[in-house]
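Worked Example 4.2. Consider the chain below.
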Amino acid sequence: MNLALSGADAGHLAVAAGLTYLLGFERAVRGSAAGDRVFCLIGTGSGVVGIIAAHGAPNALAGAVTGVGFIGGALLFRMAAGGAQVVVGLNTAAAIFAASAIGAAAGQGRLLVAGMATVLTLFVLEIRYFRWLGMLDGRRWAGRIRDDEAPPGGRPLPPDTAPSGPPGDPPAQNTRPD
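Applying the procedure from the previous section yields the following structure tokens:
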């Protein structure tokens, strides 16, 4: 097994770094704690793991996914906002997972998949900031459609009494786009 870096592998690694930098740039512009450098580092690292996996060590990707999960988990926290608990960092954690997958795909030479995943990820992250895409934002329709968590009878409970987790836990709501 030859793991020497070829010209193609170097190109794949550069694509991984560039695509994930774009995702991180979007997160930095939107005020996320993890920005362009973090995303680029995750994408580059995943690109290297993708190259290693493509050259005969496919189990390497499992370790990378696990490690990225820990990074994403570290970005999540709950904080009090008024009378409710708010989960912060969910979009960024999911975007970091996407960046890892994009880096791995690019590292394996699946550049079209990596490019399309980047476009789709940016689309999802930006959907609520463009007027013409606003109709696709689920929050726009949330008040018009019955909530699955509403009690029988159809009337939702007030936010501070709605059950959301184990008994005794304060209700968790995601009211911030992160």
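The chain has six helices and three strands. The CA atoms of residues 117 and 176 lie 24 Å apart. Compare this with Example 4.1 before moving on.
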